[in-house]
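pasting for the record
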Amino acid sequence: MNTEEIYNTITEQNTEAIDKLKEAVINYELKYFREEVITNLATVDELITYVCKRRGVTKAGLASKDRKRGMVETRHVIWYLLKNKTVNNFLTLQQMGGIFNRDHATTLWGIKKVETLMTYDRELREEIMLVANHFGKRVLWDINTKTLTYEHY
């Protein structure tokens, strides 16, 4: 018998056992994959903490009535990142605004402000790209549309 004949004989005689083994391997891989995904998902709070640390502001300051440029822009950047699902979330504009005691209209305005600023503010654009990349999102600048494009791995 040659190798191919031996292989065919074994697989024919053990079809049920091979199917059970395949199923066990798939179940194990799914379980491992789920655990890996769950442990690697970043939270909204982790995003806020990371952006605050990069920009040198406090989380308490973001929720205050402080209207200094650095504080306002940091809120806007966080809202932009949340809207674009940099971290897994299902927040509405109202909920995003509520994080910093603001309403949905302020949140929407802040997101649009960031989108506008990014067209000519390279530093802001690069900062947003770095934060997104830190959280596992590949982001590229599209020169033609002047927007960030989130790529899926």
